[in-house]
Protein 1
Amino acid sequence: MSAQAFSMVITPDWPAPMRVRAASTERKGGASEGPYTSQNLGLHVGDDAEVVISNRRALMEALGLVTEPLWLEQLHGNVVLDLDTQKTNSAFSRNSPAADGVVTSQPGKPCVIMTADCLPVLFCDTAGTRVGIAHAGWRGLAAGVLSVAVKRMGIDPQALLVWLGPAISQNAYEVGDEVRQALIDFDRGAGTCFKPNNVGRWQADLYQLARRSLKADGVHAIYGGGFCTHAESERFFSHRREAPCGRMATLIWLDS
């Protein structure tokens, strides 16, 4: 496993500068019940809003955050915001910005996305001056969300570090011809990221698709991977395994 696990969060195992802080939550450690047990951080999945807000506040306290993370309305697209230039709403607001990624150079501004099978991707530069995050499901990957994130970082790609967080594994991620074709349309070599199964469909490798996209943009320092949200039911939420379900959060910020 490419990360060090604790009772409530995973701390990425990557050579990021000391002032770069990051965490990826597990499903344990919160107050939600039923299919959302117990650290659900998503307000949009049908859980009690007050409980979700309580879970978010508990996470902030556990991570020592003094500024509320910016909780996005995720689109499964390729919109990546720059918090240094974008005016944003309060993170507790239901009118959160619509995007699938954020970047910033401001200390103490946590960037966050939520997932329950899709791939969270963290970015930082080797000097520790800029951080970012992107939500990479198949639609986002086919729309080039990681390429957009690399551009928004505004750093020489050779000076970027990337960590791939918990997502569904290839063995558990069955897709149809239309998904495979959409990803091949974006990357002609992406066919190597699919294995045919015994029902005439495909097993897609989100981790490898992300690595191909990043390497095509000149990013080679890529860490993480090796999780499976679908298989590790005690540890992670999985929309493919059970819906409705909660959402995990992956966060990154610069320590002030």
Protein 2
Amino acid sequence: MQLSAFSAPGRFWRGNLHTHSTLSDGCLAPEEVCRRYAAEGYDFISLTDHFIGRYGYPIADTLPFRSNSFTTLLGAELHSGAMENGELWHILAVGLPQDFTAPNAPDFQPVAGQESGPELAARARASGAFVAIAHPHWSGLTLADARSITAAHSVEIYNHGCAIGCDREGGGHVLDLLLSEGRDLTLIATDDAHFTEPDHFGGWVMVKAEANDPELLLEALKTGAFYSSQGPEIRNVEIRDSEVFVESSAVASVIVQGRGQAALAVHGTSMTRTSVALDRFRGSPWLRVTVVDTAGKRAWSNPVRFENTATGN
């Protein structure tokens, strides 16, 4: 079994799915944000400004900044309702229509009677957006909160801005618990760039599509035809009878994770073709792969689920 990111037709396109501009609390104009990402070799971004009343509920019109070599997906970071800690939900929505109806979210504090976070996420997904749970660690997300967002396609496993600004970058724990409860989710690495600190060009997705086209990229995100990275490349992940076979750029560690305590790492020098034994994962209904280079930079495959196979249940 080969993961879809590596079996799908096309090539990989590098993109950032979480970015801010002067339309909300970023410090660069939308055109300059797009220029900088294009100059850094990105193929696409989604400019996801905070969709609240304070900023006029912006969905940035980035269509004028598209070119033959760079494109954009319309999006926003949505807010409405309180999590268990009493703070406002943060929900990433990529591929939003420009006429998406705003919630009653005047500012960064919840208000009585407003749409809940799960309701807003469901409405965004119904409108055609790719929906992700943003920065679970930074948000103080509980497992009950995470369970409630049934419309999510994905979870941020790495948020570069949160790593730089407060050392709360991860969402892997939340992701793995939801996977173990049967949820079908992918994972994304993002910047959450505001350009007010070195919070940019640190985490991205590599999306497999036949062209650098917004609709094709969005469809590939929804179907899981991508992987996420801070630097290393994953070139293939294949699940065989007795092993997980991983092809990558030169890395020092290849780690396979599954349900509960199922995890196994292989370490070495300049590894590009690595086999990890499947024995520890025979009872796991899912697994995913992380590769780590000598600088400590990671790349993550999306999870793969098994239904009544020899590897899974």
